[in-house]
Amino acid sequence: MRKISFAEFGGPEVLQLVEAEEPHAGPGRIRIAVRAAGVNPVDWRIREGQVLGAHPVELPAGVGLDAAGVVDEVGEGVEGVEVGDRVFGEGTDTYAEFAVLSAWARMPEGLSFEEAAGYPSVVETALRIIREVGVRPGQTLLVSGASGGVGSAVLQIARERGITVIGTAGAANQDYLRGLGALATTYGEGWVERVRHLGRVDAALDLAGSGVIRELVELTGDSRKVVSIADLGAPQLGVRFSGVAGSVPDALAEAVDLIARGRLHIPVEKSYPLTEAAAAHADSRAGHTRGRRVLVV
């Protein structure tokens, strides 16, 4: 079996395509023949050796949390899924030809493997941080770094819940944010005033880690109304860093419902073959993503 692995922390160049033993589905798990794997910022953060308590690493290590594919092994005690089912979900070492999933759901009708692979961690993260920041219907949520996968999900889920959203992104992604129902503005000098011009901010999310925590606290007036998933220094400013996943099965169930009702769509900006995992990481690290990046296996 081919998989992506790294034997030392570092840049994208440490990723290697290697031959490895196939994993197998233990109790409460399933194995899939992977068709596509989601590329998430947490993947390259782990590869760089950033200290993420929820994801301890022993080297050499595989890469990837999200995948979509076809079930080919069902572990003891698992019900409601059969060999041959098309599923998407979260597991370990998903940049591979086979991967074991710990949480999964059947893919919604009409969704490709590439599209499905981009949803699991993204939707779980979006649901979690909306909950943690405490924003309510009728209030306004500011999303810094809104055009990527998590931002795309946050904007759509928040709008579905009756929350007004303001999104910041690069100039090229302004129409994309507006298409998701957000009030949009750009980064750069004067962005705080541009946000103020769009309206009052009740809560804010930092999705890009671009050094804007102080400004987000200033705009909300309360550090407890700001949550970051990208700035490890956020707690030093009294802001919660959210890095521990909640219920992935619940998030997948909600994703299936939203997708089926046409209320959630996250485009795939670019697909890469497994052999170009390093390029996918470099592009993800550079930011300015519109939607998701995935590996095709």
Automatic annotation (TrEMBL):
UniProt keyword annotation of Cytoplasm present: yes
Q: Where in the cell is it found?
A: Cytoplasm
Which Gene3D superfamilies does this entry report, sorted A to Z? Medium-chain alcohol dehydrogenases, catalytic domain, NAD(P)-binding Rossmann-like Domain
The domain of life is: Bacteria
Domain spans labelled Enoyl reductase (ER): 10-295
- UniProt xrefs under InterPro entries: ADH-like_N, ER, GroES-like_sf, NAD(P)-bd_dom_sf, Quin_OxRdtase/zeta-crystal_CS, Zinc-ADH_QOR/CCCR
Principal localization reads cytoplasm
> Which residue windows are coiled coil?
none
Arranged from A to Z, the UniProt key words for this protein are: Cytoplasm, NADP, RNA-binding
**Binding partners and assembly:** Homotetramer.
UniProt protein name: NADP-dependent oxidoreductase
Native source organism of the sequence: Streptomyces siderophoricus
